[in-house]
């Protein structure tokens, strides 16, 4: 039997292009309870900022300057679809509303319950609790 070589074993980083990196950092840390995983200046007007759901989580979100990327590669700034997971969708929904996060309606599907939420720039995300 042929041995399968695993090329990718984890999702490392997801880049989200934001208008204001400090506002984005505040949104993820203050409103969603993420932690700052890494931050380093990349020049006078941009920084490399990574946030994640916890100190122990490997996967991070890079909050990258939209203006900087538009100068480097304009086609890259289209927003990716990011789907987050939770074990308690009802509590997460209520907590986001309390934190004044714009949320969509709760959708109950055969594979799980989910809702959309939006960051400070109006980027759309999904939060889902799997069955």
Quaternary state reads: single chain
How can the largest sheet be summarized? 5 strands, mixed
Number of helices: 3
Structural class computed from helices and strand pairing = alpha+beta
Number of strands: 9
Q: Classify the helix fraction into a percent range.
A: 10-25%
| Average predicted confidence as pLDDT | 87
Question: Alpha-carbon distance between the termini?
Answer: 34 Å
Radius of gyration (Å): 16 Å
Order of helices and strands: EHEEEHEHEEEE
Global morphology: globular
- Residue stretches low in confidence (pLDDT < 50, at least 5 long) are none
The percent range for strand residues is 35-45%
Question: Can you describe this structure?
Answer:
- Helix content is 21%, strand content 36%.
- By secondary structure, it is of the alpha+beta class.
- The chain starts with 12 loop residues before the first strand and ends with a strand.
- The mean pLDDT is 87.
Quick rundown:
The chain is α+β, with helices and mostly antiparallel strands and 131 residues long. The chain has three helices and nine strands.
Keywords:
alpha+beta, 131 residues, globular, single chain
Record the SSE blueprint:
Layout (H helix, E strand, L loop, with lengths): L12 E6 L2 H11 L3 E7 L5 E6 L7 E6 H7 L10 E3 L3 H10 L3 E2 L3 E3 L2 E7 L5 E7 L1
């Amino acid at each position: 039997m042929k041995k399968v070589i695993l090329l990718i074993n984890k999702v490392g980083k997801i880049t989200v292009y934001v208008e204001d990196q400090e506002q984005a950092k505040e949104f993820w840390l203050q409103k969603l309870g993420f932690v700052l995983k890494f931050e380093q200046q990349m020049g006078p007007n941009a920084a490399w900022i990574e946030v994640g759901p916890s100190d122990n989580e490997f996967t991070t979100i890079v909050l990258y300057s939209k203006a900087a990327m538009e100068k480097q590669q304009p086609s890259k700034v289209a927003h990716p679809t990011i789907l987050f997971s939770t074990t308690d969708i009802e509590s997460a929904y209520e907590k986001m509303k309390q934190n004044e996060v714009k949320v969509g309606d709760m959708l109950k599907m055969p594979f799980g319950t989910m809702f959309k939420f939006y960051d400070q720039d109006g980027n759309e995300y999904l939060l889902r609790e799997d069955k």
